[in-house]
Amino acid sequence: MSRFCVYLVVFCAMCCRFSVLSYPQGAPVRTESCVNLQPVHTDPLSNQPVQNQKGTTKPYRILVSQQQYQTCTTTQQCGLQPLQVSIQGQGGLFRGFIVQARTPSGGSRSWGQFFPLQTGDSKVIQCQNGLTLTHTANNDKNIVRFAWIPEPGMRDQVQFVATVVQNLRTIYPGVYSAQLRPVGAGLPGSAPLKTAGVISLVTSVIAILL
User: Fold this and answer.
1) Whole-prediction pTM value?
2) CA 204 → CA 25, 47, 97, 124, distances in Å?
3) What tens digit of pLDDT does each residue of 69-111 get?
4) Cα–Cα distance between 207 and 93 in angstroms, integer?
5) 42-46 contacts, C-beta under 8 A, 24 or more apart
6) Does domain 3-209 have CATH number 3.40.50.720?
């Protein structure tokens, strides 16, 4: 998907005041899922909770379009430079997932806003610790793509962390992306925001929508 298409998806969603809906499919809005990133599946044979897969090797990864994000002061400005993110299987499929953007230093807060880039495979839910992305159906998937933008005033490093469900009995927690560092005006070693480019981008998107 081209970078311009990503801009268009985010811009349209923000213009329509993108609302967060909850559906029967996907992770439920409760502490186990939102804070602990646990699906809490129950084995139908033993009626016991399904245990997570152990070990450091995971057949899934989270890729980001770049390892930095542009700081911003308004919601509109934040939406002008979205990051493209994908959850991918490395030789295997998966059926479900829940992903948040958290600070590597700790804490359970989920930062920023998520925008699905593929129709019908993911949705945004409003958790008590922040906006979160999860699946909409338990069909087999090999990749899920979405865009992410920071919140106004963010200055911390963040990284995406997910729990990926391969099937009912196989769950992989702790799937991490690379860490994203903030860049922008007022930060050491950062170039100032290029206002001319931002204005040009917004003008182009509006022209397409009219």
Assistant:
1) 0.74
2) 36, 55, 34, 27
3) 999 999 999 999 999 999 999 888 999 999 999 999 989 999 9
4) 39
5) 43/168, 43/169, 44/168
6) no
Apex 169 CA angle, 167 and 174, nearest 5: 80
Torsions phi, psi of 97, nearest 5? -165, 160
d(CA 31, CA 195): 41
- In one letter, which amino acid is 15? C
Cα-based distances in Å from 83 to 146, 148, 201: 8, 5, 15
* Range 22-40 average pLDDT: 64
Label residue 191 exposed, middle or buried (CB < 10 Å: 0-12, 13-18, 19+).
exposed
135 vs 55: which has the higher pLDDT:
135
The label of the residue with tokens 């005041």 reads 17
CB 161 within 8 A of CB 144: no
